[in-house]
Amino acid sequence: MGFIFRMSKPIERKPLAVVLADKLEEEIRTGQLKGYVAGRRILAKRYGVNEKTASAALNVLSKKGLLADAESGKRRKIITQDIKPAAKAASKRLLILHQANIPLPVEDVLLLRDVQDSWEANGGPVSWARVDFGRYKKPGRVLDGVIDRYGADALVLMAPTVHWSTEAAKRLPTFQFGGAFSANPSLSLCSFALDSELVPLIQFFVDQGHRKIFVPTPNEELVNAIRNAYRSVFGDSMTQSEMDELVQVFPERVPQAWRGYWKKALMQVNPTAVMVLDDNAMLSLYGFCAEAGIKIPRDLSVLSLSYDERFEWMQPVPVMTRFPIKKAMKLFKSWVRGGLESVGKNFLQVELRKGESIGPARKGV
């Protein structure tokens, strides 16, 4: 999770497979290749490369949506509906922006690596930069400086604030994963609707006898979405003061601060269940519970809205939700193939992963 990337390519040296893929794509788009593309053995002989390179080139074209999936013993069919003038992404620089002061969740790292691989398969360079989304409510000048520093032609934002989303969409073609977002129609978004996704999860807790379900959030922008989910489940049976107690902002994103937050919140609120929004918060909660002698799920049930396969090794295994990375990547690739024109606001459904961290509510609470 603690990976920090800052990548740039001042000198472009394309892999041979990408060079071959570019050549084949040019022949497809100009009509020199029609219907089917020859197999890797024939391509290897024709262009003087080895079969591994030819196979990799075919995979590049497949990722760009120009070839159908491979079938044993058959040539790869050209997908004619995706044949259009060379994508605007080619040779343009993509800049990925993510939060500066907290480690990226593993699933976010994997998603952004796929984004980078997909962009580079189209021949464009990729840079990564860390910014403090929460620090600036008017980030225009800071964003301009970052864009100029990296020479960016397009942006990918990972879970930004609405202010960064708004300013980014004004300046460059922007694709955003998660976070608060701008209403700008030029913005492409792939996320999940927090309030609607929380409703069945809260109901899941309620079915186990829970009512005091505590949800800490790192910023104010998510508070209303969480409260809306509570209202959908509890209606008028939950007062505003109860809701304010159960939905609290933990603003400082440092481990020491969160130990204090947990101590204060769990003593004052005395919840029977906790939902955390990311894996850093979940690690912090598990650590605090171990130190304080709180047994999960006997004393406290826990659910994480972030997935990390390494947590399958924890005891008890946390109940987690997982964002559908493959579906998200299809939308991103569609954005690239479409010349960076907006693909709209897309909300995907998360998958609930079973675990051992949720049990019946404590009696008398």
From TrEMBL:
Keywords: DNA-binding, Transcription, Transcription regulation. InterPro entries: LacI/GalR-like_sensor, Peripla_BP_I, WH-like_DNA-bd_sf, WH_DNA-bd_sf. SUPFAM superfamilies: Periplasmic binding protein-like I, Winged helix' DNA-binding domain. The keyword Cell cycle does not apply. The keyword Magnesium does not apply. Residues 203-311 form the Transcriptional regulator LacI/GalR-like sensor domain. Gene3D superfamilies: 3.40.50.2300, Winged helix-like DNA-binding domain superfamily/Winged helix DNA-binding domain (1.10.10.10). This is Transcriptional regulator LacI/GalR-like sensor domain-containing protein. It comes from Rubritalea halochordaticola.
